[in-house]
Amino acid sequence: MNWSLAFEPLISWPLLGLVLAPLLLLALVGLWFRQRGAVFRLAGLLALGAALLNPVFLDEEREALKSVVAVVVDRSQSQDIGERTKQTDEALAGLQQRLGRFKQFDVRVVEAGKSGAAEERTETRLFGALESAFRDVPPSRIGGAIMITDGEVHDALAGTPNFNAPLHALITGNDQEKDRRIRFENAPRFGLVGKPLEMTYRVIGTNNEAGSVDVRVSVNGEQVSVERATIGQAMPLQVTIPGAGRNIVELAIDPEPDELTDTNNRAIALIDGIRENLRVLLVSGEPHAGERTWRNLLKSDASVDLVHFTILRPPEKQDGTPINELSLIAFPTRELFVEKIKDFDLIIFDRYQHRDVLPILYYDYIAEYVEKGGALLIAAGPEYAGESSIARTPLMSALPAMPTGEVVDKAFYPRLTELGQRHPVTRGLDGSATEPPHWSRWFRTIGVENPEGEAVMKGADNRPLLLLDRKGEGRVGMFLSDQGWLWARGFEGGGPHVQLYRRIAHWLMKEPELEEERLTADGRGMMLEIRRQTMSDDPGPAQIITPSGKAMTVKLERAEPGVFLGSIETSEIGLYQVGNGDLKALAHVGPVNAPEFTDVVSTENRLKAPAEATGGSVRRLAQSSALGNLTGGVTLPSVVPVRSTGAAAGNDWIGLRTTDDSVLKAVSRVPLFGGFLGLGLLLLALGSMWYREGR
């Protein structure tokens, strides 16, 4: 029973004061002057006031509320190391058994880091889970929290948590663990292709380990060097970025005996390779309508350095004009085609014909340039079919098709061939999906015979229009029409000339995105996504090797002509190896060098400050062989309910607060001046006062 006294006045408090205050003042004045009957008048006044105040005895029936206790269980990947998972399970079962004995505790078990988005797996965030567990609990009902973890908590608070209750931490693992890890200290996000990139890294050991260790350096899965690193010191590293786009630089060290895990024996840096300005040489055989189209396209690309020459007058034309007035500078044929030809990434002959401007030997140099990895584009016009065609020079060995001498002047819509629908240069070209294509017509095609390479576009009478070929280590493209400028001028609506010309130039310069056979993989969250470009009808499944060495296969589904996609949800963070046929690719799933694997040695230090600030404790779940141990392998402290002012931890026990909060179930009322009793007391007081006044 909970008895209490309450007042339920019959009139409002202000009115009650107006009535009783003057009467009380008169009664007190009578007492002061010792008037006859003053005591009876005061007693009558008190009886009247008590009747008006209406005092009531209340008997409240209350139900005590339980204190809420959160048990936060660390299920992050670092808890899979050694016996930590077993220790965690045993400790959780033991705690639930011990807490179940106390009816005053409402136990909530929260598992953190077990599943969810990639961000939740990269760090152990137990305090976020703890906050969620207490989100609907009033501060007065929080009894405390118990964390079962290896101590590597990345959101550990430096001060006191946001509740007035003890925080206890039970640490898995043991204090004799050792581990060696490697990490990047400085890894730039971008690097120039073919240029050395400066980086730094550090190898870290436990217990102030000293000495040196070999570090294997790999770029895109291929080992490039072995460095000798001093443990604990920042070490310089220089790598060369091999190609444009995503590059993966990996550092690896051998595991030492009895090491916890080799997961952090690797460090990854993702570096986007950027090409320096591409150097393009454009030689126009004569001024024509399409010349400016090529020039404007190449000049508009900030990544291209263009050198452009136009042959305004052939040498055989003699009209007496002084040589120094024919051009601003003389055509530096030797410098361009002998001394500096290797400096160019692409050479374009735009309607060029042999007129002795270039010595015949220089065509040999151009063919050799292509064989050794250079890029050549022929934009052919009627000159290619004439007597002065460059196909009649030593350059013929590098050309993908010989002219027949025929020039077909006939209107046609440029169309993609079956190969062109799959080739990355022409695949998905804007306007190509309709019939006829949604672009303007052209009116001239140059006839060729015995074309080599791949015909990705066709012209009038299904003749080849665009040929792409490989010669030795280099590449050659041939446009068998000079009327692409019609698209640029908007004739009949124009066409995607910028998109097409740029793709051709970049394919010739070996941009990875435009390779016909290409395998790429990328991690998005915890999803591994695979993209396969191919000219075949079915590339087959992709083979995957996970960071832990497990092998699996993923079926690749056709997404569009020449493109097959596949994806798989993963549970491991790290570097995945993907293969398909002769192609291989690497992909990192999850954040690079995630904090979850940076330091995996169990520790008491991170949780000591927040635990001690709340009056809690941090202790290890030491192994025990004692018979009858309820937890079957770990030693748990006893659980003791404590009041809010008492100690919350001891050598072999942990305390949890109990709450004084309760819920009102029922109330019984006993009025003191109610009914005949109150009326009788009031009449007695008034009658005594009247009797005394009447004498």
From TrEMBL:
Signal sequence interval, chain numbering: none
Keywords attached to this entry: Membrane, Transmembrane, Transmembrane helix
Protein name: Glutamine amidotransferase domain-containing protein
Transmembrane segments: 12-32, 39-58, 672-691
Highest taxon listed in the record's lineage: Bacteria
